[in-house]
Design brief:
Layout lengths: L1 H10 L7 H15 L9 H15 L2 H18 L2
């Protein structure tokens, strides 16, 4: 991705190109060269579901809520 920017940035005088233009070219090139996220598979949702199931099945959700209650209790005690 960065290699695609080298001809545009180095074609003219480096001092004559502002950072705004360089960032604009970088963003434009990165959006045009990449595939859209929605066009890809839904592995993100599958991974989230697997992570959530692991979070629940290992008992980490119970530890999370116990930690919230203990923290709330300690916060109430402290002046």
């Amino acid at each position: 991705m960065i290699l695609n920017l080298i001809p545009e940035i180095t074609a003219g005088l480096i001092n004559s190109i502002s950072w705004h233009d360089a960032v604009h070219v970088f963003v434009l090139k990165s959006h045009l060269s990449s595939t859209p996220v929605l066009g890809q598979s839904y592995d993100i949702l599958t991974n989230f579901q697997k992570s959530w199931n692991n979070f629940v099945s290992t008992g980490q959700i119970g530890a999370f809520f116990i930690g919230i209650m203990v923290g709330w209790f300690i916060k109430g005690i402290m002046p």
